Amino acid sequence: MQVRFVGQDGEGLYGSVAGRHLCDYQHAIEAMNTLTARSPDAADLLLCVEHPPTITLGRRGGRASIHDTTLQVNEQSHPVAVYEVARGGAVTYHAPGQLVIYPIVQLPLLEPPIGVGPLGDLGGYVRALERCIVQCCAHFDLPTITREGFSGVWINERIKLASIGVGVRRGWTFHGLSLNINPHLEGFDLITPCALDGVRMTTMWQQLEELGRARPSYADVESDLLTRLSEALVRA
């Protein structure tokens, strides 16, 4: 499967992100709009990005879950952009250090059991994304869980590590997953994550440090998860 990295090197709020793929959220939306307008026989691909601080609202809304839109970094105030988007779920926060992957794949054409019938199985697709994240975390010695009735990947019922929110247009999936590798967590205080009271976000680095285990590089996690997704999302 093709992988496309969107963004450019540059300086982020927390210093250099040289060699990484910092991508304005509006640019990612435009890329997804273009890619989902293609014919069904066009190539599937994984859109891999890392966003500057951004808040997004899915189809479940949740503006009441946004507490502030100004991020304080090094005693300076930085406005955080807010986007209403056509994905499932409620409110999510993106930031540098968070791996974001948007699979653009023809859902009906994937191998069974996901690609069953003219519409495919969206729930099965979400479960496949979750499995890839769980397996990736296990590879780096971090145990995680999924929860019935709640999308994403969790450490336990109150601590969430990765979020998933997807949509389908013309058979193409768009939006996708975000995995917290090592973002600064204060930005999540701007929202109630996923509009779920009592839930807090964490990072791979934080959890592995608490367990006394080695912390992988961003690049190593990115490579592992992209490989797993490429192997899981295959056309029949």
3D structure, described in words:
The chain is an alpha+beta fold. The protein has one domain: Bira Bifunctional Protein, Domain 2 (BirA Bifunctional Protein, domain 2, 2-Layer Sandwich). Helices cover 22% and strands 31% of the residues. The chain is built from 4 helices and 15 strands. The strands form 4 sheets. Strands 1, 4, 10, 11, 12, 13, 14 and 15 form an 8-stranded mixed beta sheet that branches. It has a 3-stranded mixed beta sheet with strand order 8-5-9, with no helix packed on it. Strand 12 and strand 13 form a beta hairpin. Helix 2 packs antiparallel against helix 4. The longest helix has 18 residues. It is globular, with a radius of gyration of 17 Å. The protein starts with a strand and ends with a helix.
Count of individual helical segments:
4
What does the average pLDDT come to? 89
How many beta-strand segments?
Answer: 15
Percentage of helical residues? 10-25%
Please state the second-level CATH architecture.
2-Layer Sandwich
Spans where pLDDT lies below 50 across 5 or more residues = 8-18
Q: Would you tell me the structural class of the helices and strands?
A: alpha+beta
Main pleated sheet: 8 strands, mixed
Query: What's the CATH class label?
Result: Alpha Beta
Radius of gyration: 17 Å
Q: What's the helix-strand series?
A: EEEHEEEEEEEHEEEEEHH
Distance between the termini: 13 Å
How many domain regions?
1
Provide the CATH topology: BirA Bifunctional Protein, domain 2
**How much of the sequence is in beta strands?**
25-35%
CATH superfamily assignment? Bira Bifunctional Protein, Domain 2
Report the principal-axis shape.
Answer: globular
